[in-house]
Design a protein that fits this description.
By secondary structure, chain A is an all-alpha fold. Helix content of chain A is about 75%, strand content about 5%. In chain A, helix 2 runs parallel beside helix 4, helix 2 packs across helix 8 and helix 2 crosses helix 9. Chain C is globular. The chains are: A mainly alpha (about 290), B mainly alpha (about 350), C alpha/beta (about 240).
Chain lengths: ~290, ~350, ~240
């Protein structure tokens, strides 16, 4: 195996890993603030993919242009879901919350299945097969655009949390819920906003990834698991960790596909997950719990 | 209020009569029902068995598994392979099937508990193991890989009773799985009233308090995982010889693992009858939905071309959402209270 | 100190959390059949010392001995088996089990079977005046009843040494007096040794034969109750914290 084959695989994995990272950000944001493990993660992301697919079919809109629309739509979805459903189980044990979201996940998959059918469907943009070369390194335009879009969205998200008042208020809630209530923050609304922001991330990631892969409803559980792998490796609640781990997983999957078999690539991720859970449950970049 | 553990108390006279009546109806079901009813009823008891095994872990010991398809699958593949490769009849093959499922459970449990992985993280560990094994079997050619693993069935096999080789009429499968599910119920009832049951519930409610009272938490959690995975392994053997075809994508699918949880959640996590009661509601309900859709299509109320494959799961999961939101203790405790099926009083 | 050999011997125990020194070289003995108390302002390290004794976490240095056995760093369940029963300051009932079942879990450790454990659990419920609550959900108990449940559970493990962490808090004065009488009778009848952390001075003075005072993780005084209340170091640490 020569250097350029390897370099191509690594580059491709890195670019896709950025999209994975963005998706994992959505999971991390929700967990970091609301302390809810969103088991409907991949399902919400696939909703974003299907939305971008419809936009492409109906309006001929490039998936990248659907990103803000998909983000807005799923923001609303997440906001409502948290405000009217998830918030009602905050007093229940953790496993009941988890099972509630698992049930919502199945509802979404079943509904998508009824609407769109089980077959894979994709979009064909004008630049789908275009690429440019750096030495012998071939970089596909779709992958590069997807990566750039992901970085932009992720940067916007981080800026939101760092610089806006709302973002700061949400961080205050995450640090100390009771304290946030004492100083008069409306925690219920901020939680809904947070879930909305997390879901918006997924909508954006879904629209972006449609540029690279075809969509079908059964894709969803796989994305959920992938995001868990990434977030656990990066450290639950660590936003930067999610991005780094996304790249790590993207590259390791690309290498696993190259060195072993493409179908073994997710086995590699799960093995990595088990490994990380056992050796460093708080994640590579997460803070130690105890 | 009735709480899950109360349901170990003796039944009231009304409960005894109702229970006897239900049992009688179920025993006589093959005389009335056709093959369709048999299929549904068999599925009910199969899911009740898997649900009971899942409930033992979460409801009794507080360990959330979203990977129960793994234990079922290991049981199924082990017995099916041994039957095909060396002609080992399933009545014996069930032993290595249980052994392997338990071994897998112990490995997973040991890794998880040893490194103090709790709650939802443990659930993720179970998912990761299930997915890993699915992908591995996808690549094992002597287990059929993605092409599937098949058991030979001749037309003659579909009649009579051969419990050694698990070949026979649909009624045999029905009575067998009913006996297994009820056996699991009796076993769980016994366990819940034993030292194990007390320790499990203590661990579930407060691990550090249990430890301070002398409970070896790691050991008793391992017992819970071992017994639960063994029960699921038995269900897997039944599955293999009832379905006669095994595909990793179907057997180990995370949807199977989630299906195993639905009945127990609807019936009531931590109750003894919850898993059976819940599947008795969900499975027929799913069938009714499917039938109703077919009828509506037949009468052209809805376009026959419409694809409504996902509707059954949609209805199931919607019910689960409602249950979690409004009756998080499940329906069985509520029904018991309303119908006074359980003798009041503090004694178990 | 009485002439008997110490049952519990804490020698030079130190424990830090993230650089914060919670216990600094604490040494302290409790004699067999003695009732001793550990007092000190909030954050003095009392509960940390209990947790070290009970095996929740190992000390950074120092040893804990029970009788002839070195139990330093053993797991909590092993320490329970060795003969130490403890209660939690923040009560930890098994919420979904009944009161009787709660105590049965504890009694199972010394019993051959569930029936025997339940019988012994009933005895301890009666002792702690919880017998009328036996069939209730532990989650539905009032705080004083939960405190009593903690004591009943700890006793049901059949300990030689009982560690009580603020079990009188929230009890009415008359209830406190009854609890004091119960504990004293237990000691007299069964030879139980008791080490208690307590803020309720009424109970500390009535019950304990010897008191150790912890402040900022160090033992600043030790002696009989009437000597402790006159110790200027003790008075200063309490007045400094505006307590007592």
């Amino acid at each position: 195996m020569d250097f350029w084959t390897l370099a191509n695989a690594v580059t491709s994995g890195l670019l896709i890993g950025l999209v994975y990272g963005l998706s994992a950000l959505g999971l991390s944001v929700i967990f970091g603030v609301i302390r809810i493990v969103n088991f409907a993660h991949g399902e919400i992301m696939v909703m974003g993919m299907f939305f971008a697919l419809l936009m492409f079919r109906w309006l001929g809109l490039d998936p990248l242009l659907s990103v803000p629309l998909a983000a807005a739509l799923l923001f609303a979805f997440g906001y409502v879901l948290q405000l009217f459903v998830v918030s009602r189980v905050s007093h229940l044990p953790e496993h009941m919350q988890f099972l509630l979201l698992a049930a919502i996940a199945i509802m979404i998959v079943s509904a998508l299945l009824m609407i769109f059918g089980p077959d894979a469907q994709g979009v064909q943009v004008g630049y789908a097969w275009d690429s440019f070369a750096v030495g012998e390194l071939l970089i596909d335009y779709p992958k590069m655009f997807a990566a750039i879009a992901s970085v932009i969205v992720a940067a916007l998200l981080l800026a939101f949390f760092k610089y806006t008042m709302t973002g700061k208020a949400i961080r205050a809630c995450a640090d100390n819920r009771t304290g946030a209530q004492v100083v008069g923050l409306n925690v219920g609304r901020l939680y809904a906003l947070t879930f909305g922001v997390g879901a918006a991330c997924l909508g954006a990631a879904g629209a972006i990834i449609l540029l690279l892969f075809e969509v079908h409803p059964y894709l969803a559980p796989g994305y959920t698991l992938l995001a868990f792998v990434i977030v656990i490796i990066g450290g639950l609640g660590s936003l930067f960790g999610a991005l780094v781990a996304g790249i790590l997983i993207g590259v390791s999957e690309a290498l696993a596909a190259l060195l072993f078999q493409p179908s073994m690539k997710s086995a590699f991720s799960f093995a990595l997950l088990i490994f990380v859970l056992l050796l460093r449950p708080q994640g590579l970049l997460g803070k130690a719990i105890r | 209020m009735i709480r899950p553990g109360d349901l170990v108390r003796p039944l009231s006279p009304a409960g005894v009569w109702l229970g006897a009546l239900v049992l009688l109806v179920l025993l006589l079901l093959p005389y009335w029902g056709g093959s369709y009813v048999m299929t549904v009823a068999t599925t009910v008891f199969y899911l009740a068995l898997v649900g009971q095994s899942w409930n033992l872990m979460l409801g009794f010991a507080g360990l959330l598994s979203i990977g129960h398809a793994l234990f079922v699958g290991i049981g199924a593949y082990t017995s099916a392979y041994l039957f095909t490769a060396i002609g080992l009849p399933p009545v014996i093959g069930v032993l290595p099937a249980i052994a392997l499922a338990v071994l897998m459970g112990l490995l997973m449990g040991y890794l998880g508990f040893r490194f103090a992985i709790g709650g939802v993280y443990f659930a993720l560990l179970t998912i990761a193991f299930a997915e890993l094994v699915r992908i591995v079997i996808d690549h094992v050619s002597w287990l059929g890989a993605t092409e599937g693993f098949f058991l030979q069935v001749s037309e003659a096999d579909r009649h009579g009773i051969d419990l050694v080789n698990l070949r026979g009429a649909p009624e045999m499968y029905y009575y067998l799985i009913m006996a297994l599910a009820l056996g699991a119920l009796v076993l769980c009832r016994y366990l819940l009233r034993s030292r194990l049951g007390y320790y499990w519930q203590a661990i579930r409610d407060d691990e550090s308090a249990a430890e301070a009272l002398g409970v070896d938490v790691l050991r008793y959690k391992m017992y819970a995982v071992a017994i639960s995975s063994g029960m699921a392994g038995v269900a897997g053997v039944f599955y293999a010889f009832y379905q006669n075809s095994l595909f990793p994508e179907i057997v180990f699918n995370i949807e199977r693992s989630i299906e195993a949880t639905l009945g127990s959640i609807v019936g009531g996590v931590g109750t003894l009858f919850g898993p059976i009661f819940g599947t008795f509601i969900l499975t027929p309900l799913g069938e009714i939905v499917t039938e109703a859709i077919d009828l509506l299509k037949h009468w052209h109320v809805i376009d026959p071309e419409t694809k409504l494959d996902g509707l059954k799961l949609l209805v199931w999961s919607f019910i689960v959402v409602l249950i979690v939101l409004f009756k998080p203790n499940g329906l069985w405790p509520w029904v018991c209270e309303k119908l006074r099926l359980i003798r009041p009083g503090e004694e178990r | 100190m009485t002439g008997a050999a110490p049952l519990l011997r804490i020698a030079g125990v130190s424990k830090s959390f993230r650089g914060l020194r919670a216990l600094n070289d604490v040494s302290f003995d409790v004699a067999e059949r003695e009732i001793a108390a550990l007092i000190g302002p909030n954050g003095a390290g009392k509960t940390t010392l209990f947790n070290v004794i009970a095996g929740v976490f190992p000390p950074d240095s120092g040893t804990v001995r029970l009788g002839d056995a070195d139990i330093t760093g053993r797991r909590p369940d092993r320490i329970c088996h060795a003969g130490i029963g403890r209660t939690f300051q923040l009560v930890k009932p098994f919420a979904q089990m009944t009161v009787l079942e709660n105590v049965t879990v504890a009694a199972l450790h010394g019993a051959r079977g569930v029936a025997e454990a339940r019988a012994s659990a009933r005895f301890f419920l009666e002792l702690l005046e919880l017998d009328t609550r036996a069939g209730q959900h532990a989650a539905n108990l009032t705080l004083p009843d939960r405190k009593r449940l903690e004591v009943a559970r700890a006793l049901a493990t059949g300990p030689r040494l009982l560690l009580l962490d603020e079990v009188m808090a929230g009890l009415r004065p008359s209830e406190t007096d009854r609890m004091v009488a119960t504990l004293r009778r237990l000691r007299d009848d069964t030879g139980l040794t008791i080490l208690l952390i307590e803020h309720v001075m009424r109970a500390v003075m009535a019950l304990s034969e010897r008191i150790a005072v912890l402040h900022h993780g160090e033992k600043i005084s030790e002696g009989t109750p009437d000597r402790i209340v006159r110790d200027p170091a003790v008075l200063e640490c309490y007045l400094g914290d505006h307590e007592l």
